[in-house]
Amino acid sequence: MDRDQILSANAVRRLIASGKHIVISEGRVLQLDGWIDKHPGGKLAIMHMVGRDATDEMNIYHSTETLATLHRYRVGFIVGHWTNLTPPIRGGVHLLTSDENTSDDASDIDDLSDASTLCTRTTSLNIDPARDEALRERIALGSDLDGQEDGPLQVPSSGRNRGSRKARSLITSEAYIDKVMQGEIDDNLRDYPSLDETTQRAISSAYRQLHQEVKDNGLYRCRYFEYAKELTRYLSIFALFCTALRCGWYLTSAAFLGLFWHQIMFTAHDAGHRGITHNFVADNLIGLFIADFCCGLSLGWWKSSHNVHHIITNHPEHDPDIQNVPLFATCPSFFKSLRSTYYDFQFVWDKVADFTVAYQYYTYYPVMAVARFNLYALSMHYLFTSPRPQSRITSWVRPTEIAFIVCYWLWFGYGIVWLTLPDWPTRILFVLLSHMITMPLHVQITLSHWAMPTADLGDAESFPQRQLRTTMDVDCPEWLDFIHGGLQFQAVHHLFPQVPRHNLRKVQSLVRNFCKETGIKYTIYGFKDGNKQVLGRLAEVADQMDMMLQCQKYMAETRISGLH
């Protein structure tokens, strides 16, 4: 194969249609089939980049040494700007064609990335094309459709809502969901820069200049003195835990243990992103020791999930961090029983979801208080069901994880809970309190995304715009940074995930300037207001679900669509 050949867009499409994992990076056409099962970041991270120009994503997630090896997978080059295709994992359909002379624009019947057709793209809303025209006529709530058999019905609002609402017009539940989803798309198209090719290319160009500025300013260099201070704090808290436990102050010791877990996991997050030493082995050992040995959580599971979260942030079908049905729903897309490409599982919307989501505004903090138990379950599921790493680079990770987690349950489960604590009431209270103390960490994790848009604006949107559109920062004074552990700079972190957290405040000022220059809205709230935003979104989605149920009830009563 000629690695220096120039490939047309049609040729690249045919490779993808034949099942090849083709990614574009800096004009190179990369075929990653031989690497996808060995990729330390997981195969899904690559699958979400198939058919796309992944230059920005690859540059910020990989070291210079790794980027230098990409020539091994090159099968050719492209000339000019690449128009992104929809990856097959996201529903892209790419047909094999044999006419090499057919123009790309005329033959690209499967390319759904054209921004001019974004608002009318029915596949993004799961609208049946046969019903599309009828839905468009009925999609506006409150329209004058009286007298039609399936027209709207005036009903009072639900008494469950926080605050009074005027009577609303009911349409079919499917049309109502489509209306709400399209409304968020329209709002995002209005509030953020245009998706036309010129604008998004300019944003990507400005982002690459910003990335170079971050490197030139030395902001990728870790300040190890800051970690010396972190280590001193961790050891002090752990010493207080041991002292209280030895004195028989069991609940006090539980509180200190929970605080220790809360604080030390911030460093596990840094290590998982290779943001400490920037060395794969060293940072993984640090992360494994903290996450698995000290906290009983699988770093491998977290990296598998978190890498996808960073690549396709806040997409209901693909981002596992917002897939929490039936406990929570952060957008109406879940009402349609969507399928998760991460879990390969159908999140069925049923009566249980109807009940739990109706009260999610109230259950948010209680669930966050015990969320750590769910992380145990996800860690165990990952370690015993996910495929073993195929690369020699990562072959040692899985057995190390298992050994460290066994050690965790020996020192915590057996040594402390079983041997040290005197009776079952004390054991139960100790476990609950120590785990509930970590609640702020779980709130912090959800804070920066759950209130942000989940609309998919298509393949034309640049990487930096999507990250800033779906992520918020949390404002706090510098002396409180240790409480938030760097997670308060989530928007900045999503743009530069390997920048050490102690440098994120400096990068934040550069990102603010970038947003002013490009016109991308930079979202930042104080911790209190950020919580209000999340609760507001949970309440809003609960109200949307209530309206959907009223639509379904009306259809059942009037036997519309064959319902009885």
Secondary structure class reads mainly alpha
- Helix percentage range: 40-55%
Q: Shape, please?
A: globular
Proportion in β-strands? under 5%
Given as residue ranges, the uncertain stretches (5+ residues, pLDDT < 50) are 99-168
Sheet with the most strands, sense and barrel status:
3 strands, antiparallel
Question: How many DSSP-defined strands?
Answer: 9
Structure overview:
This protein has helices at 9-17, 43-47, 55-61, 64-67, 104-107, 132-138, 173-191, 197-216, 224-246, 250-272, 280-294, 299-311, 351-358, 360-369, 371-385, 397-418, 424-436, 439-447, 463-469, 481-484, 490-495, 504-518, 527-558, and strands at 22-25, 28-31, 74-77, 154-155, 168-169, 339-340, 345-346, 473-475, 524-526. With 564 residues, the protein is mainly α. The chain has 2 domains: 9-93, Flavocytochrome B2, Chain A, domain 1 (Roll); 199-518, no CATH class. The strands form 4 sheets. Strands 1-2-3 form a 3-stranded antiparallel sheet. α12 (299-311) packs across α15 (371-385). Pathway: Sphingolipid metabolism; Lipid metabolism; sphingolipid metabolism. Its EC number is 1.14.19.18. It is an enzyme of class 1 (oxidoreductase). Residues 141-167 are annotated as: Disordered.
